[in-house]
What we know:
Blueprint: H1 2-17, E1 21-35, E2 54-62, E3 67-70, E4 86-91, E5 94-99, E6 112-115, E7 119-128, E8 133-144, E9 147-161, E10 165-192, E11 198-223, E12 230-247, E13 261-264, E14 268-287, E15 290-302, E16 311-322
Amino acid sequence: MKNIKSYIIITLITLLLSGCGVVTNKLYIQEANLESNLNSPPLNITKNKTAGSITVSPSISINSQKSISGTVMEHTKVNSSNVFQVDSTIAEGSISYKESGKNVYSYKGNNMHWNLPEAALGLNVDLALSDQFALTIGANTYFQNEKSSVGGHAGIGYFKSDENSGIRLEGGILWQKIYYDISSVLITTYEPFWGDKTTNVTFMSDKLSKACLDYYATLTFNSNSKSNFIDFFLSLGFFSQTLLEFEHKNPDPGYYIFGNMTTYETGKSDDSATILFVNPGLTLILNDNSRINLGAKMHLINGVSSISNNFLFTPMIQFDMMF
């Protein structure tokens, strides 16, 4: 036992004298430019729906806004000119940066800029599994700035109808490809067991794309008239929209008994919004097997700090073909 205690004491003394300490890496998002579609849930009308019936619905939607800005994650502190200031050191032909002591103010402005396409095309297929449940799957796409993106959805709906009206409750998942152009700062802080704390600044720039997964829930009411050529519908619900999902590649965070202990306050940056929507509209009945839905979809974006405009109007046209 005496030998074990002596070994522990010698090890601790060696550890303290070896110049080791704690290294903390923290990532700050200076500017994030992203491009993606608003991945809004599908519209499913309940009328003459029986087990085995299929409804195929191509659609087009128009975005009233082309850009939304806000604040995501955390920006570094800045100087009095609202600029992140660093001090540079040149040694042996290489340059290094450390944070200036003048960065004591909070950043004024938005560090996230979301570019939306002018229009998006969609296709939804709704299969009635029984007289009360249906499976819905679909895809959407857009073309902008020489880029194209594909998203989609899948969900389960419970529906019920009579001679005058129909109702449907639906929930499912959404996925959408997002293009990122991110400027970030990695601040590495070294706190030795002996001596003064030091910091080092690394500027990072990443361009990437990623498919992100979200969820949705909707409730849809619609009228079912036999004599008129026009019906009404009202769909409302919510969905999540991923804004930032960025993996920062850190060094090996291993612990070495005669080296440094590395900790990470953030290794993955992610942020999302919760969007509420209401979609009132008209259904133009062409015949027993086809109809046109005209919707005035209105979105309310929640969960984004300092957002430039949290209201988004998206008119849409959908053509339903029943088989």
